[in-house]
Amino acid sequence: MKFALLITISIFSFNCYSQSKIDSYPFDNEKEVFGKFYISRSFDNEFETTDQKLKVKAFLIIYSGGKDNNYLYMANVWPKEKSQSYGVTYNHRAFNRKNPESGEMTSYTLFKWDYKNSYNSNVGSATVILEQVLSSYAFKMTIITDKSNMLVYEGFREINELNKK
Question: pLDDT per residue over 21-35, tens digit each?
Answer without folding.
Answer: 455 556 777 778 889
